[in-house]
């Protein structure tokens, strides 16, 4: 089994079948004329052998996320006013604030969720795309696992957006201190949403398609 | 007729579906992705959880969420106060995103499950149930109540030195909702639901 698995893997594509993206029903692959219009007989989702235009779409989203990542980190996410003096905080200065006040746990949570996870996601997805485009055969199992983790942890980056929301709700008029949301939060929210979508548009099966000898079975 | 073959959604390898012992799962032998799970009474449990979740969501919206006490004044907030203030400050996009991920999507998700699963218990089906079930599955990653809860925790720590924070009824209800949604993710086996739909075609 282990010996021949690389070259003669029994994939759905090779057997003339495709996996419905909506309900995982195995469907006979539609004829060339019907491709693009065919719908799943069970759930009604459009049938595709692989996620459509996976590489192009994922790249486009990643590039957009890279661009938004810069203002997300440079612009303030909160603006605190205390007795007439204002202080702007970026995501990183928020982390430093927690470190200075001794809340190491919270500092670490925010640092991981807001800084490490988004940048790691951008790097991992770009790397996966490059490896797929170069038809790399290097460690497909590990690359798939990396993708799985990326998809799973992405949502936790929303943490900082929620923190800002709760802070502005709690600290406002009627107190000496008021906290307002800064424009950085808009870009940051955009980065999180866009990277989540880009993880969804990437098709991990492309990693394994590169191991197949003949390409025709998976051509779109 | 039950389907006998299944393709891994992460590497496309075909597998023969084999009966599993309860509460266990089958993984892809090539890439290790989760293929299918066997959970007994998945429909009953998911339905019960979805109804519970909807009740908790209503409670979470009626009662005060968090209150802040500082210099003798008490300021009450509800679950949607943050959204309202963000939109007043001109951040409508972020406000909508927060409203969607913390409340509307969980609500839609649970509502869709009730719409599909309740009639199923009575061997009936409502119009467009397949489409709605597919929508519910697509919405799953966008329901972020647990992340919101962590956000609350972080904010409370941040503000603890400045003022006293009083948790409200809605907060506990929301906490319950987080657990309910996590349980829905565990107990709901889409495969079983799709197969049930096929039986009464």
Write the layout of secondary structure elements.
The complex is a heterodimer of chains A (220) and B (201).
Chain A: E1 17-19, E2 26-28, H1 54-74, E3 78-82, E4 85-89, H2 91-100, H3 104-133, H4 140-153, H5 159-170, E5 177-181, H6 184-201, H7 205-209
Helix pairs in contact in A: 1-3, 1-6, 2-3, 3-4, 3-6
Chain B: E1 5-7, E2 14-16, E3 24-27, E4 34-38, H1 42-62, E5 66-70, E6 73-77, H2 81-88, H3 92-121, H4 129-139, H5 145-159, E7 164-167, H6 169-187, H7 190-199
Antiparallel strand pairs in B: 1-2, 3-4, 5-6, 5-7
Task: Please tell me about this protein's structure.
The complex is a heterodimer of chains A (220) and B (201). Chain A is mostly helical. Chain A is built from seven helices and five strands; from the N terminus they run ββαββααααβαα. In chain A, helix 1 (54-74) packs antiparallel against helix 3. The longest helix of chain A is centred in the middle third of the chain and has 30 residues, at 104-133. The relative contact order of chain A is 0.17. With 201 residues, chain B is an alpha+beta fold. Chain B has two domains: 1-38, no CATH class; 41-199. Chain B contains seven helices and seven strands; from the N terminus they run ββββαββααααβαα. Chain B has a three-stranded antiparallel β-sheet with strand order 6-5-7. In chain B, helix 1 (42-62) crosses helix 3 (92-121), helix 1 (42-62) runs antiparallel to helix 6 (169-187) and helix 3 crosses helix 4 (129-139). The mean pLDDT of chain B is 90. At the A-B interface, strand 1, helix 3, helix 4, helix 5 and strand 5 of A face strand 1, strand 5, strand 6, helix 2 and helix 3 of B.
